[in-house]
Amino acid sequence: MHSCTQPSPKDKSTKQILENQSQEEKLQTKTLTTYSTTTSTIATTATITTTNGQRGSIDSTAIASHQRHLDSRDSNGGPPGDTPYISTTATPNSNSSVTSPNDNDGSDDETDVIGILIGHFGKWQFLMTMLLSLFQVPNTFHISSSVYQAANKEFWCRRPLHLQHLLVDVWRNLSNSHDNCFQNQLDWSRITKDIIEQLQQHPQQPPPALKVLWEVNNTRIACTAWEYESNDNVGNSWTSQWDLVCDKEYLKNVAEMFFLLGVATGGIISGYLSDKFGRKTMLFISAVLQTIFGMYVHASLALYFAYSFEMYITLRALLGLVSVSVTYSGLILAIEYVDGKWRTIAGMYNLFPLPISYMLISGIAYLTQDYQRLQLCIGVPGIFLCFLWFVVPESPRWLLVKGRIDEVKRIVEAAATFNKRDLPANYETMLQPPTQEVSSQNFMCLFRSSYLRRITICFLCIWFTMNLAYYGFILNMSTFGGNVYLNSALAGLVEIPAIAIAMYIISKVGKKWLFSATLVCAGIACCCAAITEGQEDILWLKITFIMIGKFTISAGNTIMPVYTAELYPTAIRNVGVGACNVAAGLALILTPYLSLLNKIEDHLLMSLLTAWCLFGGFVVLFLPETMKRRTKARPAEEK
């Protein structure tokens, strides 16, 4: 018989060490495999608006292209598979445990090595994302400033010096300039005091002597100079600065179009630049340029070319270009600080400063009532935000993709210390760049399958509709009637609960029907506002319907980017969102001209918004439900 010998304590210790090392190697392998899958999702979950941002998509191609394409969809729009999550336990020789995502708040979403080390969402992430959300304030100021700077003013043809004492109505009767653009060509020295006195006594009945002068020379000429109402709570605006009235009134829309053209252009290129040069670098370069251009616009008005409208709109275009870059880079950075389900939440609560900024600028505009002083006030906050360079770090996930491990280690250690999390003793070995693959996807891949064709066509229509309606509300507050300052403040106020409610509901239910409902309700509100158009006695009711429309369209604008990111497969998500940005940019360029519709017919503006909102709500019905709701039951023909 063979005797059974018990292993010695030394053999036990050796065996335990080998088992621990094996567990650590498995953890590292699983971490690196899953990280390459999740990085593209992190970078593309959040998208924007405007302008306030500020609201378009985030095109994070650097991270998206450096992934192993093990995500829940294939590039042809195939069905989602089981997402691999990281679930690890502490090794006996580690200083602390590396917790499972199920122990945190991000259990419903995939995680990566950065999330394991510093946590899905802690004090550090909360502080950094809140600081980044402050960059939305000057962006919103700049995009909504035209509501006050380009406000319409009452005007009339300029009176001769010796007739400045005449009342405006008397002057209009005397010069026959009731349209404020043309007047009779008269020799004003022949206007006697008797004619003026008779005209003042009977404004609607021109005296015979004046009729004689009109008959002698009945030529009508265009006015070359104008005077403006000074007590209208508008103050000095683009209109009074450059006489943008009569045949030059369209230039106000051109000025705003140039700004939004810059926004649209920046929305297309900012994602590429932030991927190439880094989120933090692009954020602060854009913030510095935004401050310079914003302050330079004010300073230039006091210099030689103060009256050069061409120079002004050029500066506005550059301001729009860098403003949207601030929005995109800051939003990407905020998303990449967090992990799990907090990516979506962080991207959405990054929008909260927008409505607050709308309310703030309405108060600032009311107090200044001068477009130059307003421009100075909204440019000042950018100076202080530039000092956040010394507080806000670069995205650790972007740095890891770029192989800058030493910088990643410093950020991870600082974040873990702030979050009071202990790092494993060998955590440096977990920080390995994912395998990089070059993506060759282009625009045509969005039409590769019936599934992709359907969602692409739908989203192009929806993004155009949403941006046209959202900014149609914001940038036309001065044309809706009532007090423009109060209307703008109320429009900002109703957006706060809209964002909060949308955040709560989409975390509980699917997005398809809710998204469709927001657009349909906005369309119904616009229809009701169109019905009440032109009835001054119920102006309050019209404004109420407009605020209901602003509430619902703001909720929809919060849902749209998240919905888009979820339905596009990972491999072509950046291409899809980039295409949606083009449609959004086209809507932005057209938005300033919506105000001209009311000059054609009073009901035309709100009727157009009604039609587009109802159309957008109908198109949403052709989209599938969000990814999580469709995982278990999806027709085989869509694979």
Task: Provide tags for this entry.
3% strand, mainly alpha, elongated, 59% helix, Growth Hormone, Chain: A, disordered N terminus, 639 residues, two-stranded antiparallel sheet, 6 strands, two-stranded antiparallel ribbon, disordered C terminus
Account of the 3D structure:
Strands 1-2 form a two-stranded antiparallel sheet. Strands 3-6 form a two-stranded antiparallel ribbon. A two-stranded antiparallel sheet has the order 4-5. The chain is 59% helix and 3% strand. Among the domains are: 155-228, no CATH class; 446-628, Up-down Bundle (Growth Hormone, Chain: A). The radius of gyration is 30 Å and the shape is elongated. It contains 27 helices and six strands.
What CATH calls the topology of one domain is Growth Hormone, Chain: A
Distance between the termini: 63 Å
Largest sheet: 2 strands, antiparallel
Number of DSSP helical runs: 27
Residue-averaged pLDDT: 74
Précis, in short:
It is built from 27 helices and six strands. It has 639 residues and is mainly alpha-helical.
List the helices and strands and how they pair.
Layout: H1 9-45, E1 47-51, E2 54-57, H2 61-65, H3 113-118, H4 123-133, H5 136-144, H6 146-149, E3 155-157, H7 168-175, E4 182-184, H8 193-201, H9 208-216, E5 220-222, E6 226-228, H10 238-242, H11 250-277, H12 279-300, H13 309-337, H14 342-349, H15 353-368, H16 371-379, H17 381-385, H18 396-401, H19 405-418, H20 450-474, H21 484-506, H22 512-531, H23 539-567, H24 573-590, H25 597-600, H26 604-620, H27 627-630
Antiparallel strand pairs: 1-2, 3-6, 4-5
Helix pairs in contact: 4-13, 5-13, 5-15, 11-12, 11-13, 11-24, 12-13, 12-16, 13-14, 15-16, 15-21, 20-23, 20-24, 20-26, 21-23, 22-23, 22-26
